[in-house]
Structure prediction request, 152 residues.
Amino acid sequence: MEHVEALRDGVRELMKVVRLLKQQHQEHAPAVSGMLAVIRRHEKLHLKDLAAACALDQSTTSRAVSSLVQDGLVRRVADPRDGRACFLELTDDGTEALKKADEWYAAMLAATLRDWTPADTELLAGLLRRFAQSLAATDPTTAQSTTLEATR
Prediction:
């Protein structure tokens, strides 16, 4: 049980640091860059698919997308098969914002891991993926959302 408590404390500490980074670097916020990355990765993505891929409810996703559209990072394109629906796509500004966020994250991670060996970095990456998959598997609705994103 002690190892579970140590992991719990480590996850709490990690979440705290992520919250602090998010507050200090809002232009690179994980949620925003994550949504932009999902939109870039999928051609002809509907809002409901973005919500599922990001494991968010549609109303939260709709508000976020409205903000991204207002900021000129995303545009809505009419779905020719369904006049009521639209696809989401990145604008040139959205592509540039995502590129800058990716560069910022890469530089931050490189600086953070500068004293780590490549083997340790690969081990961490593999264990994080395994942990996320195991965590998602404990809740069928979470597993379904993460499977959707992994299969796209």
About this structure: Strands lie at 45-46, 74-79, 82-90. Confidence is low (pLDDT under 50) at residues 145-152. The chain has one domain: 2-112.
